[in-house]
Structure formats: C-alpha cells, structure tokens
Amino acid sequence: MLSAIREYGAKLGGEPGFKARDIRWCIDLNGQGRLLGLLPLGDGKSGVTLDRCPDMHAMNSGGKSHFLIESAQTIALHFKAGEDDRKIESGKVRHEFFSHLIAKAADTVASLIAIRTFLADDRNMDALREKMCEQRVKPTDWVTWHVNGSDPRVDELVQGWWREWRRTDLAIDERTQEATLLEPMVCLLSGESMVPLATHPKITGLTGVGGLAMGDVLVGCDKPAFTSFGLDQSANAAMGAVVAQQYVDGLNDLIKKRSRRLANGLVAYWFKERVSEADDPLAFLYGLESEEQQTASALIQARNLLDAIRSGRRADLTHNHYYAVTLSGASGRVMIRDWMEGQFVQLLENIEAWFADLSIVSREGKELARDPKFMAVGSALVRELKDLSASATATLWRVAAYNQHIPAPLMAQALGRFRSTLLKDEPFSHARMGLIKAYFVRNPEGEDKSMKPYLNPEHPNPAYHCGRLLAILAGLQRAALGDVGAGVVQRFYPAASQTPGLTLGRLIANSRNHLGKLDAGLSWWYENEIASILGQMGDAPPRVLDLQGQGLFALGYYQQLASLRAGKKSDTNDNQSGAHA
Q1: Residues 169 and 308 both lie in one domain
Q2: Residues 129 and 135 sit within 8 Å (Cβ to Cβ)
C-alpha cells in the first residue's frame, strides 16, 4: 500500500521541506517594505492551493514556525478576542522565530529584504492587524506575500536558501538531534541504505472523519508497545526523508483531490493511468454529480464502457489498474480501514454487477427505480445517515468493488428498517429493497436466478408468495372498506412475516367478508389472485420463516404491491393498504 502511495506522490515532484498549502490571504508590499494591501485569495472561502510552500518539520518541539508562509497569528500576532495568555505567549515566541528566519534569509536573498523591513516596524504590524480585523481574517488562516508584484515563494534563491538552512542549521539544532544520531538502515520502501527519519510529516485533511486540525501520523511509534529491537519512534518503520515526504505528499494530495466521504471515513482512490470522471467506475458507484450524469443510468454507462473496452474502442483502459484506501482519523493517528487494488476492467465489471443486482421495480411499478448512489444504499441500513458506522460503510464498499456477497447482518439491518418504515406508514426506500434483493442474488449458498427486479409469480420459494398474499389481502381490505387507519399491514405484518402459517389462514378467512362488498368483477379478480398465490405455496404456508424467509417475504410484498399499482385494477387498489409509498 505505502509503495503505491509513494509512487503516486513521487509523480507530484515534492521534496522534503516543501508542501502544498491552502492559502487564504496575501500581504502585498512594495519594494521598500510598505504595506499596499491585504488581498483575499481564491473564491473568498477556501483560498487557493499553492505548491512548494516551505515546511518546518517536527514542529512539536516548540518555539518554531514555518518559513515565509505562516498563519495570520504567527506573522502578525493576530489573536482572537479573549485568547488564553499562554497561547499568546507561545504565539509571540513563534513570531520571533519567524522574523528571525526572514531576517537571516534576507542577508543573502535580496527579494526578502522588503519583508524583513516590514516585520521590523511595529507601525506596519499594527496596520496589518487592523486590516486583518476589518477583513475578518481568522488567526489560523494561512498567509503568503507579494513583493513588487512577485511571489518570493517561487524564487529559486529563496528555495535554495531554505534547503541549505535545513541541511545545516536545522540539522544541528539540539531539539532535532535524534534524527542524526540514528545509524543507517535499509529503507522500508526503497530498499536503499539511509539514515531513517525520526518522525514523519503529518497527514492532513481528515478533520471531518476524526482527524486533528494539525494533522495525523500514519507512521509513528511513540509508545513502548509499538517499538521493538531497541528502536525509537519511526525507526521501527525505517524510511528516508525523501521517501517519507513522497508518501505523505501522495496521501495528502489524494485526500484533497481524489477522496470521497463515506459516513465516518474517506475513500481515496486513483488509477495507474489517468481516467476521466466520465470513465471512472468508482464515480459511478459513489454517485455522479452533474445534472446530465444524474439523469443517465450508472448501469448503462458501465455496460457501454465495458462494451467499448471489449470491442477495442477503448484499448487505453484495458491494462489500467486502480488503487483505493479507506481511512479515518483517531487520536492523532491515521486509521487504515481497508485497502483495495486490481484491474480496471475487473472493477468496471464489478460495478456493473452491483447496479444490476440492486435493480428493483419502482414504488409505482411501471419502471425500474433509478440506480442508487452508494450512500443511499448505506443509509438504507440505519434510521439516520449519522448512525451508519465506518465499518459497515467499508464493508459495503468492498462488497461493491469486489463483487462479494452481502453479509447477513447487513441484510438483517435493511430488513429491520423496512419493517419499521412500513409500520410507520413511511415511503419505501428503493435502495433498501434493492439491497435486500441483491443479498439473494449474491447468496453464498448459490445465486438466486429466480430473483428479478419485477414481480415473479413463478418464484420457487413459498416465503416470497406469502408476502405477495399479504399485499393482495391488504389491497382487498382497502377496496372494500376504504381507509380504515391501522389496516392489515400495520396490525399483522410482523406476525405474518415470521409465522405465516399461523397468521395468513385467519386473514384469508376474514377476506370473505370483504369480497361480498365488491362488485362481481372485482371480487372475482381478487378471488382468482388469492387462489393463484395459494397454489404457489404448496400444501400450506410455512409455519415459521427464518431471516432469509423474512427477506423473501418482504420482497414478495413489495413487488406485488408495485405490480398492483402499475396494473390499476380498480380506483382504490393503486394505493397501498396500510402503508403509503
């Protein structure tokens, strides 16, 4: 996994001591160090991403700042109102360190003299803080510089000075001596002999899934239980500075540009060779964003792309590979929840199978429901999306990407939510019904070829027909009595779906009273439907249904109801008896 991420990061051209940052503001100076203005960057919300920002490694030792580009708090001593005195004092220490670095660099790099002059004048700093207050700059916003219209960040002399400072001054700093005291080791990723980095740069961008704003560690051993052979910290997974920077740059870039939220986690994925979003199988799975794409069937798009690959029209995708890592943050550490890789064509075939297996008739019964987005399938398991666990999400993602069977506990969750919404008279979820259907299609005991998107009157399992019968009886009650509030479904669904042999007989006997209230033609139609369904059950309905039987019961009920609505056998039976769509 790390090798693949490092390979991705190496293509970004990063190096130790530099990283990309989201910069929100720019301090504009003239050549003499006079403040011209404070310029907002980007769209006014997120700023812009700038590459090759100088990065100070091992900031935890205290008192340090980054070079050239820093927070508004560190550059201008811009604190929020009522800030803690200790944080103000530590901020002043970092500001002094920042000013010292700029002054030292300006001795040899002329483009930084204006910044040094600006920082040395307290009146300039007062004016800058006033502008920051006027423009509502946050203390944590990152700030860069322009001098005479030029960006000193991209100045080769500035970058060269920073490299040399890191090689000399930083290396002999007593607070980072541990890195130089280590003996050469074999790098875990490159296989080359090198001095291992004592602590690795942090992974950022996981704040929404349990990570820290300051970043999280992927490779780190800060407790005795994590160490071995007398090694300290990251020497337990020895990597050189360049290699470590490459995997960190790679993962940070993936999180920012190639990740999607999955409940309490993120999935970051990429392809060995570039793939457009229009050809991205995982974008099909997650849910396409543009209005044009949303109106198209993800299943059809996957099939069309497969046909193009197999016919040779898209030979560029034939030998491509994909990689995907599911992760979250926890107590300052990056948690790797899953790792997947494989051939592009196989992934596309699996995504096609996912949508084909989930396909289900719509509530109205006249067409197939739209292909569900991935998170809609996940939300079918829980009452609210926030209740969906990261482990369940990761399992579903693997089920879809690897064409695996759906675990019984997930099907049980979906079935439980189906019963709950049915009894509460809430709308059916197409994704939920599709997931229950997909469970049987992918049943590890053998694929259920008889499970179809639409009603199947010839289904071989009696449990399926028990569900059909309840839908017919509910429709009969409504046709005869109209809306009676708590009808057959609310009163008898739990019992009928678990012990049909003890429940359905009484409901059939009571249905004779309803048949007498209908006109002859409609009464004959209901009698014929009931007799036909009973004929599919054999001698009698099953006495007890297990979990799989209850799932088939639910599908039979739903598909029969959809068929009734599509057929419109009367003015009344196109509505659900006891549970509206």
Answers
A1: no
A2: no
Rg of the Cα atoms in the chain:
32
3-state secondary structure of 201: coil
Question: Domain for residue 578, yes or no?
Answer: no
Tokens read off for 313 = 């029209």
Which domain range does residue 231 map to?
181-257
**Amino acid code (one letter) for 378:** G
DSSP string, 255-315: HHHSEEEETTEEEEEEESS---GGG-HHHHHH---SHHHHHS-HHHHHHHHHHHHHTTTTG
Do 346 and 419 sit in the same domain of this protein? yes
> Rounded to an integer, what distance in angstroms lies between the CA atom of residue 419 and that of residue 416?
5
Tokens of 137: 């700059």
Query: What distance in Å separates the CA atoms of residue 350 and residue 438, rounded to the nearest whole number?
Result: 13
CA distance 477 to 491: 13
Q: Where are the alpha helices (DSSP H) in 369-487?
A: 374-379, 390-402, 408-423, 430-441, 462-481
Q: Which of 176, 205, 232 is the last residue of a domain?
A: 176
Cα–Cα distance between 544 and 503 in angstroms, integer?
Answer: 10
Residue among 505, 510, 514, 512 nearest 540 (CA): 505
Residues 317 and 223 in one domain: no
The verdict on 54 and 193 lying in the same domain is: no
Using CA atoms, how far residue 386 sits from 380, 381, 436, 578, in Å, is 12, 11, 21, 29
Domain final position from 231, 257, 283: 257
Amino acid in the structure at residue 298: A
Q: Which residues contact 167 (CB under 8 A, 6 or more apart)?
A: none
pLDDT means over runs of 10, the chain (581 residues): 92 87 94 94 83 80 86 95 91 95 95 96 94 94 95 95 86 44 82 87 90 89 81 85 91 92 89 91 77 63 92 93 93 91 95 95 92 92 88 90 94 94 88 96 77 93 94 89 73 92 90 86 92 88 93 96 76 35 28
Listed in sequence order, the residues at least 6 apart from 326 whose beta carbon sits closer than 8 Å to its beta carbon are 262, 265, 266, 267, 336, 337, 338, 339, 393, 394, 397
Handedness of CA 149, 153, 154, 158 (dihedral sign): positive
User: DSSP state, 428?
Assistant: P
Number of domains into which the chain is organized: 4
